[in-house]
Amino acid sequence: MKKIITTALLAVSFIAISQQKNKTKPVSFSTKDKTVTVYTSADGTNLRLSKTDNLQFTDLKQPLETQLCVFVNPSKTFQTFLGIGGAITDASAEVFAKLTKESQQEFLNAYYDKEKGIGYSIIRTNIHSCDFSSGSYTYVDEGDAALKSFNIEHDKEFRIPLIKKAIATAGGKATVYVSPWSPPAFMKDTKNMLRGGRLLPEFYQSWANYYVKFINSYQKEGIPVWGLTIQNEPMATQTWESCIYTAEEERDFLKKYLGPTLKKAGFGDKKIIVWDHNRDLLAQRASTILDDPEANKYVWGIGFHWYESWSGGSSMFENVGKVNEMYPDKNLIFTEGCVEKFDTKKLQLWANGERYGESMIHDFNNGTVGWTDWNVLLDENGGPNHVGNFCFSPIHGNTKTGELIYTPSYYFIGHFSKFIGKSAKRISSVASQSYLMTTSFLNQDGKVVTVVMNKTDKKLKYSLCIGTKATEVSILPHAIQTLIY
After folding, report:
1. Active site residue 336
2. Staple 78 to which of 95, 116, 401, 426, CB 3.0 to 4.6 Å?
3. Catalytic residue among 94, 336, 354, 358
4. pTM for the whole thing?
């Protein structure tokens, strides 16, 4: 009996400590003497991340139900912000190499300089080829399971130089993570890097060693690798490089091979991201891997993409929040999204940008710490891509004229990436009516960043409310705003 009581008391103490630990720490924030600086991008105008207003806070009376409001509570804090960025693929690097020196510098500033551009701080890149490569390739000779022929000479021509320039432009610091699209053909049951197939069990160790070789090689080139995903889109049989893992197969490869191999090589600090596929099966994959204590200990977070609407349904934003509720100790990171099916006529389609704004607001509000777009740069045809899977990127480079084409997506992403600082805390941000979407962050310098998006055809007025203070803001139809105060 005494033993039962002692155990119960210990359990109660543990719960109390846990609750204390998870309690939101109040943040001291005052609107006194604060000016609200407003930046706007809007359809049908020339406004692109343009400063449009400086506003002051005044006293707020009880809001009415007829009033449109955005309520921000800086004392309620959530996840810590990691950053925003995009993928430097072979395609991006090859297009960059074809630009003039002036356009190359413009491109680097546009993405990676916080003052001149939108301040990207995350870089994803592929482990050997993906669809956005000019052709399929690996770093070893066919059949070399011992990896004696391993070398990254291929990447030294275009990709590595661009990654290094991007890191330098970002102030010498960037969060770089890497992803494979397929093991070499000889390691798979189909003997083909393309069209799915599975990693053969006899090559699990060899494939785990491959990640170590890649990380070592890139770090010797001066590119620090922060983390990795296990497999890009492990449930999709694509016409390009792809490989299928069930949840159990990914779990077992991680806990028996990849995790221990990285640790043994001195890479136990590398952040391992599981899933790296759409929001639809996110909960099942997370549960299978994270409910296994041996696999769980190697996992930093869960990565996800936005293509689940291929089935005809809507984006499953709430699935991100559900996984965040189930595993609050793990990080959620958006690892890929782009507008598919390139069409020159749609380069300036505003809805493409709105897709980014809507996803980013929902994903951050559901606990996401970092957000990674797909290719940072593609050519005037949405490539190169060796299987014809041409897509949009926020910036396109016209390889004939050398001109850079900025799409609406670039500006929508910039409304977040330019203003939210690393290690910012997401804070409570709630719209009173469905006309507006919003998210907010508290930067380490004490400034709040509130993003507000209006997808309607109407010009709207809303009150930005913090406690008993408010300011009235106008937002144009189909506009996105960032408010700094």
Report:
1. yes
2. 426
3. 336
4. 0.94
